[in-house]
Design goal:
It is a single chain. The protein is an alpha+beta fold. The chain has a single domain, classed as Sufe protein. Chain: A. 46% of the residues lie in helices and 18% in strands. The protein is built from five helices and four strands. The protein has a four-stranded mixed sheet with strand order 3-2-1-4, covered by helices on one side. The N and C termini lie far apart (37 Å).
Length: 153
């Protein structure tokens, strides 16, 4: 299996069988995101503990396979991360999705980087970048306690 096939398999798997789908009780942060161009919507639920570590994270939403796969991968990777590390991973992911070929951080294992890099091909399709980044912008908003809905416009 070549790298392109592996990336497609990861996106299809997470798009069809999203992890961490559904609202959980006792969340203490949340944020909504909307991509009006294609209709993608996401509502992120986050539980930070007293040490500002991501205890739990999930999402509800609807949208294309890229949008759902990205939210699924993101929620999987963020569990157990500190707020500071989560913010750095968000920044590095957004850099990779827009302009870089790799994700440059020591905060992730190689298999985690591979999952994120599976979304990197969207940089060749500007309209799809918004699909891949919607949930990441919502997470950033939740961490910063912004109260308005994030949009891709």
């Amino acid at each position: 299996m070549n790298l392109k096939e592996l990336y497609q398999e990861i996106i299809l798997d997470h798009g069809k069988n999203p992890r961490n789908l559904g609202k959980f009780d006792n969340f203490n942060k949340d944020a909504k995101g909307h991509n009006p161009l294609c209709g993608d919507k996401v509502h992120l639920f986050l539980k930070l503990d007293e040490n500002k570590k991501v205890n739990d994270i999930s999402f509800e939403g609807e949208g294309c396979a890229i949008s759902m796969a990205s939210a699924s991968i993101m929620t999987d990777l963020m569990k157990g991360k500190s707020e500071k590390d989560a913010k750095e991973i968000i920044e590095k992911f957004l850099d990779m999705i827009k302009e870089k070929d790799d994700i440059d951080t020591k905060l992730l294992e190689e298999d985690e980087k591979t999952k994120l890099m599976s979304l990197g091909g969207v940089k060749n399709y500007p309209m799809r970048v918004k699909c891949a980044t919607l949930s990441w912008h919502a997470l950033s908003s939740a961490l910063e306690d912004f109260q308005k809905e994030v949009t891709t416009e």
